Amino acid sequence: MSSKQYFDEVASQWDEMREGFFSEAVREKAISVANVKSGRLAADIGAGSGFVTEGLIQKGLKVIAVDQSEAMLAQMRQKFAGRDDIDYRVGEAETLPLADATVDYVFANMYLHHVESPAAATKEMVRVLKPGGKLVITDMDEHAFEFLRTEQHDRWMGFRREDVERWFAEAGLRHVRTDCADEECCAESTGGDEQARVSVFVAYGEKSRAHAP
Ligand SMILES: C[S@@+](CC[C@H](N)C(=O)[O-])C[C@H]1O[C@@H](n2cnc3c(N)ncnc32)[C@H](O)[C@@H]1O
């Protein structure tokens, strides 16, 4: 089963699943690290059913929500029906459906560990940031819970923070830093014999005002 098929399949249950995995503390941390300003435009990459998007529109931002899964975006459309501050776009990590230098912020929560090349996906997210724009990624620290790969379609078993910092720097970001998101991602294997508790990091960087696309 492909990652897209997996997320299409779980889309209608994702909100409930997500609540079991991690809490609103993750998005609060991501949003506070970016110091977002009302009225600005953000992209939520790997938006799923709109967990981060919801936090952003509550702060008065407009959001372009991108995901490979039409079913996830359909959940979002249903949840936020009638709002005109969200633009839904089906798209892939390597070729985001956004023009160069168009958004003030890019957020990606629990997305990076699903993509084929985290370094290339990071570069692509930086491409769409305006000069001075901010990238904030929240994801799991490196772990050894194999069942997250076999049962939940994770591709990467979390990340070392120094690798994420390097990808940010190589993509041309400055003021790069990582920190604890003060949250753990929790999951139980389907057999109930293993329980994962993995710390979550927040990674931050700013695109230089003189950044060449
Ligand atoms: C674990 S979910 C997280 C969803 C949401 N950000 C949240 O916090 O609830 C990962 C999301 O990333 C999307 N995704 C995974 N790989 C992708 C890719 N290569 N391109 C675009 N979206 C992808 C999935 O479809 C899924 O909706």
Roughly how many Å apart are the termini? 35 Å
Ligand roster: S-adenosylmethionine
Q: How much of the sequence is in beta strands? A: 25-35%
- As for the number of domains, it is 1
Summarize the structure.
By secondary structure, the protein is an alpha/beta fold.
Key traits:
7 strands; globular; seven-stranded mixed sheet; alpha/beta; 213 residues; binds S-adenosylmethionine; Rossmann fold; 33% helix
Explain what this protein looks like in three dimensions:
With 213 residues, the chain is α/β, with parallel strands linked by helices. It has 8 helices and 7 strands. The chain has a single domain (3-207), classed as Vaccinia Virus protein VP39 (Rossmann fold). It is globular, with a radius of gyration of 16 Å. The model has no long low-confidence stretch (mean pLDDT 95). The structure holds S-adenosylmethionine. S-adenosylmethionine binds next to helix 1 and helix 4.
List the helices and strands and how they pair.
Blueprint: H1 3-10, H2 14-21, H3 25-34, E1 41-45, H4 51-58, E2 62-67, H5 70-79, E3 86-90, E4 103-109, H6 118-127, E5 129-140, H7 147-152, H8 161-170, E6 173-188, E7 195-207
Parallel strand pairs: 1-2, 1-4, 2-3, 4-5
Antiparallel strand pairs: 5-7, 6-7
Helix pairs in contact: 6-8
The chain binds S-adenosylmethionine (SAM).
